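Kindly go through one protein, given below as sequence and tokens. The question is how this chain folds according to its tokens.

***
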Amino acid sequence: MTLPLRAILFQCLFLCLAIAIESLILRWRLGYGRQTSVEYAMSMNFLSTIVGWVIFFFVQPLLPAPLREQLISYILFDQVYSSEWFVGVNTLLILVALGTFFGTFVIELTGLNLLERILNRNQPVEEPTDKPVSQYYDRFNQQKTIRASRYHALVILIANAFSYTAILGVLVIRFFMINVARPVA
């Protein structure tokens, strides 16, 4: 059995990078404390990573054999073989990268909303007062909640954009170090 150690190490590096960047943005834009922002960023990124790998392992058996072999060899072992699927690999990589970005955004936004719901349930509930609540006040609270959820979505989108940009930068540097900076033998 071959262990894809390089893939595991890069996944850990990318997770650390994404957690650091996204926790800074959560702290800066949402006003969470340091520990809370790191915990939220870790939870969201672990959730999106687990869902991503589960999707990968469910989708790859459905692919045609040459594409499946190409995908597994590239993701797990960092090797690309020439085949009829290799011709359109740039377009396919761009589409997969865009799908991954927006999929991660949706998963992390859902994760943030779930975390806030779970953690807010543990706070003490205010006792209801005898005063009737006006219809205007209810509408104001609904609009406030909608604005807050839109702002959370924007913050998660910005955090993902920054973390994906940093990861892309690492991949570009790695590409140039492997392919361009090779010593001529």
About this structure: The mean pLDDT is 81.
